[in-house]
């Protein structure tokens, strides 16, 4: 008995001691996310509440509609016309901002308002010093009305909570007039159903020529009255009386298909009113996604940059189908699928790093993206270029959908019909439009009969190379030979005398006069760039391309000059030509592969030096922390891949070329389980790779195959302060 009593006493003392010890909370990766990185400068990132790849991006929309306000938010100006349920992140054109909600007190003017006229419109200044932004949650006080705004989201529903002052004239206004920048309402409808629900739709045109969004809004507190207001009754005022500190909640579901689809989302995704539970679920959804790459990094600032990049990379593409599988096709008809459909494919940007990243850490979602793209092709006749809310914008050059689809074929990604996908590739490549009709006739696009001829043709050549790789993977020899031949069209534009890629006219003559520093925004031979940058847009054939300079050594010397040239750009240059190191422009996507060409050409030390330079100088934990537009995750994906130590240079090449990892350790969730990257002796000075082992065996290659990563395993990279060629 005494022994038992002593044991019980010892256990009690142990438990008491444990209780007195502080409980160490498990590290939350979301704590390393700063959603405001890129909210200043030219980053154009979305700021607000969402879940990964969700249809709803709920956040503030500003009065300002100029270029740097494309996301609806910018650090330089704190006006808020309301909180919209759709936004773009990091684009160069503004659209969406649909179904805008604004809490008010008193009578207001039902219009957007003017920034230098306080009291005009519904707008208020936000008290940015009290703003809270974190994954899945946004909050800010509205100074004009003394109202605290809070919001969170599910995939298809935005949940609002507004803390009002005492007022007999409190209201929540739904604004269907104002969209984003280029967007204009064409038809709207709204009506009350009872005293706590409002339904309606908003049709608009802008970047997306025929945009349709339907909504169902439900109030936790019944409204006293509902009135249509403003121009063409595009504003709906739900009025209340409120006590001091009273919380009024509202949930708004959206659908690209119908009001019934929006109602179904309300019932399925958010039947209750537990704000904290929804906020926690949204945060946990982000936590789960961020955990797909668990990294150890000594510098906490670098860790914040890394996980913010992951956050920004998983905002889009956005879900574009209802709970029951209904979606709006590219032909504006309604269909149903048991697979989720997506929208906002910024493919000219994202085929380079964002989509390849998805094939590693999100192969099932990558398959869904491709299935969506093939479906788009079925409905509109070719693969998407820049698809926005069911509309083809044809924004940017080339056929950027082909590399994404081809990449998935080559890597064996599941979730779509490979033969149908390749048929979509062939169909897209054969379409006689957007310069391809000239390319098919002449073998290249002449610069005197088509604007941005060089950019279009060289991007088409990249797509052809990707198509060739897909054909090879499927055993289609004739297609492989055809697309390989077409992928060499870039050679027409190479001028041996100057060492630059130049426009060539229909008679085979180089355009004159020629200035490699000259750029005219969307109006010369290049697209958002000049001859300096486009001379290196040959990621698919670099070994053969190097010989066009006379030798590999001459090619490397020419590449060196890119970084040593003056950074000035002549002419009416695009603001997208940014992040300059010499004439290298990291702020724009055509430059993103260039640093890795050195490794491909046998000088990995130069890749290491330049990659480290870009990662440490052009990615920062502040408002202006990006060197260019985020572009729906591409700018961040480049950083993520580079921090892990490799980058996919060749579209649909299924291999990643080594650079200079900055992580100390990374654990990636991949198809085969876990892929671990361990770096040895990594530091700010030890930037060069000394040796590599894969699963304990020496890895004597300058790249790693996708299949090796997808299978899971361990990659150990030993670093040094001395340049070494390890293969």
What's the gist of this structure?
The chain is of the alpha+beta class and 727 residues long. It is 29% helix and 23% strand. It is built from 19 helices and 36 strands.
Question: Could you explain the architecture of this structure?
Answer:
The protein contains 19 helices and 36 strands. By secondary structure, it is of the alpha+beta class. It folds into two domains: 31-290, Beta-galactosidase, Chain A, domain 5, CATH 2.70.98; 293-437 and 444-720, GH92 mannosidase fold.
Helix-strand blueprint:
Blueprint: H1 2-20, E1 59-61, E2 79-80, E3 82-84, E4 100-105, E5 124-125, E6 132-134, E7 137-142, E8 147-153, E9 157-164, E10 167-175, E11 184-193, E12 197-205, E13 211-219, E14 225-229, E15 235-242, E16 246-255, H2 259-269, H3 275-290, E17 293-296, H4 300-313, E18 318-319, E19 326-328, E20 334-336, E21 342-343, E22 345-346, H5 347-350, H6 354-361, H7 363-380, E23 386-388, E24 391-392, H8 401-410, H9 418-430, H10 436-442, H11 453-473, H12 477-486, E25 494-495, E26 500-501, H13 531-534, H14 542-547, H15 552-564, E27 580-581, E28 584-585, H16 597-600, H17 604-617, H18 634-644, E29 646-647, E30 655-658, E31 665-670, E32 673-680, E33 688-694, E34 697-698, E35 703-705, H19 706-710, E36 713-720
Parallel strand pairs: 32-36
Antiparallel strand pairs: 1-3, 2-5, 3-4, 4-10, 6-7, 7-8, 8-9, 9-16, 10-15, 11-12, 12-13, 13-16, 14-15, 17-31, 18-21, 19-20, 22-23, 23-24, 25-26, 27-28, 29-30, 30-35, 31-32, 33-34, 33-36
Helix pairs in contact: 4-18, 6-7, 7-8, 7-9, 8-9, 8-11, 9-11, 11-12
């Amino acid at each position: 008995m005494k022994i038992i009593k002593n044991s019980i006493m010892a256990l009690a003392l142990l438990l008491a001691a444990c209780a007195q010890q502080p409980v160490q909370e498990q590290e939350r990766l979301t704590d390393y996310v700063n959603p405001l990185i890129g909210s200043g400068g030219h980053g154009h990132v979305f700021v607000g509440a969402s879940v990964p790849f969700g249809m709803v991006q709920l956040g503030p929309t500003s009065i300002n509609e100029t270029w740097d306000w494309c996301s609806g938010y910018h650090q330089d100006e704190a006006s808020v016309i309301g909180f919209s349920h759709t936004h773009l992140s990091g684009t160069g054109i503004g659209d969406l901002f649909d179904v805008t909600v604004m809490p008010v007190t008193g009578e207001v003017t039902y219009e957007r308002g003017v920034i230098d006229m306080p009291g005009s419109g519904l707008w208020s200044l936000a008290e940015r010093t009290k703003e809270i932004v974190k994954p899945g949650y946004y909050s800010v006080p509205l100074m004009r009305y003394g109202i605290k705004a809070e919001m969170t989201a599910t995939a298809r529903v935005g949940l609002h909570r507004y803390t009002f002052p005492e007022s007999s004239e409190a209201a929540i206004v739904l604004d269907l007039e104002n969209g984003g920048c280029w967007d204009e309402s064409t038809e709207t409808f709204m009506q009350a159903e009872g005293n706590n629900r409002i339904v309606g739709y908003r049709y608009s045109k802008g970047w997306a020529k025929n945009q349709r969004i339907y909504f169902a809004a439900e109030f936790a507190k019944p409204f006293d009255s509902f009135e249509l207001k403003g121009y063409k009754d595009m504003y709906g005022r739900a009025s209340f009386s409120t006590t001091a500190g009273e919380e009024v909640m509202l949930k708004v579901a959206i659908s690209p298909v119908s009001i019934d689809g929006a109602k179904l989302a309300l019932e399925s995704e958010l039947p209750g009113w537990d704000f904290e539970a929804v906020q926690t679920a949204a945060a946990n959804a982000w936590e789960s996604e961020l955990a797909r790459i668990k990294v150890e990094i000594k510098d906490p600032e670098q860790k914040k940059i890394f996980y913010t990049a992951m956050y920004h990379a998983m905002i889009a593409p956005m879900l574009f189908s209802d709970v029951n599988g209904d979606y709006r096709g590219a032909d504006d008809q309604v269909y149903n699928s048991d697979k989720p459909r997506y929208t906002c494919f910024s493919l000219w940007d994202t085929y380079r790093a964002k989509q390849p990243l998805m094939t590693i850490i999100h192969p099932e979602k990558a398959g869904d993206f491709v299935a969506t793209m093939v479906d788009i092709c079925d409905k509109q006749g070719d693969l998407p270029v820049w698809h926005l809310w069911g509309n083809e914008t044809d924004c940017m050059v080339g056929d950027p959908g082909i590399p994404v689809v081809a990449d998935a074929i080559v890597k064996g990604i599941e979730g779509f019909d490979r033969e149908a996908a390749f048929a979509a590739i062939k169909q897209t490549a054969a379409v006689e439009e957007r310069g391809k009709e000239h390319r098919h006739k002449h073998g290249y696009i002449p610069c005197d009969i088509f604007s941005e001829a060089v950019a279009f043709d060289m991007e088409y050549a990249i797509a052809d190379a990707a198509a060739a790789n897909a054909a090879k993977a499927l055993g289609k020899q004739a297609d492989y030979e055809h697309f390989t031949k077409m992928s060499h069209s870039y050679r027409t534009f190479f001028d041996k005398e100057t060492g630059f890629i130049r426009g060539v006219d229909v008679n085979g003559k180089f355009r004159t006069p020629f200035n490699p520093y000259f750029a005219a925004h969307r109006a010369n031979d290049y697209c958002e760039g000049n001859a300096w940058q486009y001379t290196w847009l040959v990621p698919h054939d670099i070994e053969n391309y190097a010989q066009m300079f006379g030798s590999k050594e001459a090619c490397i010397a020419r590449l060196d000059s890119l970084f040593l040239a003056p950074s000035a750009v002549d002419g009416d240059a695009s603001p997208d030509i940014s992040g300059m190191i010499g004439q290298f422009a990291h702020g724009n996507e055509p430059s993103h592969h260039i640093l890795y060409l050195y490794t491909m050409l046998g000088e990995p030390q130069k890749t290491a030096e330049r990659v480290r330079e870009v990662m440490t100088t052009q990615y920062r934990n502040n408002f202006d922390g990006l060197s260019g537009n985020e572009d729906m995750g591409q700018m961040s994906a480049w950083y993520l891949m580079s921090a892990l130590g490799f980058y996919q240079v060749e579209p649909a090449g299924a291999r990643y070329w080594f650079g200079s990892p900055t992580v100390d350790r990374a654990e990636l969730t991949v198809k085969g389980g876990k892929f671990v990257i361990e770096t040895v002796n990594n530091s700010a000075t030890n930037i060069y790779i000394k040796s590599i082992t894969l699963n304990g065996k020496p890895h004597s290659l300058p790249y790693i195959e996708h299949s090796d990563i997808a299978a899971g395993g361990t990659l150990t990279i030993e670093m040094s302060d001395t340049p070494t060629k390890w293969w």
